[in-house]
Amino acid sequence: MKKTINVTRSSMPSYEEYCEEIKELWDSRWLTNMGAKHQQLQSELEKKLSVPHVTLYTNGHLALEAVLQAMNLPAGGEVITTPFTFASTTHAIVRSGLTPVFCDVNDIDYTMDVTKIEKLITPKTVAIVPVHVYGNICDVDAIQQIAEAHGLKVVYDAAHAFGAFYRDQSAACFGDASMFSFHATKVFNTIEGGAVCYHDDTLVKKLDDQKNFGMSNAEYIPYVGYNAKMNEFQAAMGICNLRHLDAEIAKRKAVVAQYRSHLSGIKGIRLCPEQPEVISNYAYFPVVFEEAFGADRDAVCAALGAEGVGARKYFYPLTNTFDCFHGAYDVNQTPVALQISERVLTLPLYADLSMEDVDRICDVILRCQK
Ligand SMILES: *Cc1c(COP(=O)(O)O)cnc(C)c1O
User: Fold this and answer.
1) Interatomic CA distance for residues 112 and 102, integer angstroms
2) Where does 127-276 have alpha helices with state H?
3) Angle between helices 355-368 and 245-263 (to 10 degrees)
4) I need a surface site. Which of 41, 119, 150, 184 has the fewest CB within 10 A?
5) What is the pLDDT of residues 157-204, one digit of tens each?
């Protein structure tokens, strides 16, 4: 039996480091509700990301719902977004009483095609929710320009982009707000967790109150809220993992370089180019198999699976084809996203993936070529 290689493997501090971090909780008996660890992680993140405000959540999905709902966007308002993303992005929009309008992605880094946004704007458009997919940074300058010209809010799904920088600014700095996911599978994790990063001072108290049942204090409840607080054990994991973030990203970078050395320049294999002026977080390694490769994505995925290698069809299917939407959206409106979703595979990528394993994975892939 060959050794199995999962598509990802969670980053963790040493057992001793985590135990040391959580030790105080046995004295304080303060396990959640914005305790000392929560406050510490929040301020460490504000510093690390150079953003004025970070609000922490129990997961990234609720963080995205929270910020959309805190912006007082009119019910039924249209939100321009992309279908080439995780279910969460589209679901957060719909669950916030807003209507997703799907913009296609570009053919290079698979982020929102900014040349196609303006055609989708109507009098009902209220916001743009682009996705820094795979950690690729969207064309934030063009998106900002369009948003300002049309008076639209911009909320980035930055779930993939923690630790990435564009022109020396962290991915937290763009638009009106950015959502990060700190799920176990992401570059930086708090087991489960998430954050909203933003500049607007007036949102701080509102987001804090809303995630705590809408309660401003014990007797004043100005919002119909929910419970989305990050607990102390999550925050402690984040404090530990943050110490090792730069080292983890450096190891990911070496893994990606090894993949590129095997797979660049192969006929029918398309890789995302490195983005100019971006410091990458090396979150994912997507590979697109074009016709010229001779074996399609599903065949390569099956061949890897037979060797115990868990590659992932990420993102497939597109969110605008989900059964829950009962055919409300026309997938042919986003032809590039459709094509990429049918041809893309993300390969295993994590800090401790060995070079030998990368060699073996590439070997299996290259043997599929016809
Ligand atoms: C992981 C992810 C989310 C959701 O984050 P959770 O922390 O798992 O709730 C949202 N959007 C994208 C693109 C993601 O990859």
Assistant:
1) 10
2) 140-150, 203-210, 232-243, 245-263
3) 30
4) 119
5) 999 999 999 999 999 999 999 999 999 999 999 999 999 999 999 999
Pocket flag, ligand 1, residue 53 (CB < 6 Å): no
What is d(CA 318, CA 116) in angstroms, rounded to the nearest whole number?
18
DSSP symbols for 48-77: HHT-SEEEEESSHHHHHHHHHHHTTPPTT-
pTM value is 0.98
Distance of alpha carbon 127 from alpha carbon 151, whole angstroms = 9
Q: Which ligand 1 atom is at minimum distance from the Cα of 89?
A: 11
Q: How far is the CA of 67 from the centre of ligand 1 (A)?
A: 14
pLDDT tens by residue, 313-327: 999 999 999 999 999
211 ligand 1 Cβ < 6 A:
no
What mean pLDDT comes out for the span 205-216? 98
> One-letter amino acid identity for 77?
G
Q: Is the CB of 181 under 6 A from ligand 1?
A: yes
Residue 14's pLDDT band, with cuts at 50, 70 and 90, is very high
Bond preceding residue 180 cis, omega within 30 of 0: no
Residue whose CB lies within 8 A of the most ligand 1 atoms, among 56, 157, 349, for a mutation test: 157
Q: Is 178 helix (H, G, I), strand (E, B) or coil?
A: strand
The pair of three-digit structure tokens given for residue 294, joined into one six-digit string: 């001779």
